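During the reporting period the student researcher (J.K.) took over the structure-prediction task from the postdoctoral fellow and processed the backlog of single-chain submissions. One of the processed entries is reproduced below for the supervisory committee.
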Amino acid sequence: VTARIVISRDGTIKRTEILSRSGIQALDKSVLNTLNRVRSISQPFPEGAKEDEREFRLNFNLKSKRSAG
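J.K. obtained the following structure tokens:
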């Protein structure tokens, strides 16, 4: 799943959207639920930052790990 997140200068999440889905309904729903719960990164941009907002793209990967033993 690839998501886009836009954060305002004060650290508030301004927009989120899923750009591409995994094709696994449970994973897509889990990512969407997580994006909907997060409202802030809890700190503003560093002093001197010139942007009013910043955009990030996050890739969520589902990988299975097998334990030995």
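The committee noted the following: DSSP finds one helix and three strands in the chain.
J.K. will present the remaining backlog at the next meeting.
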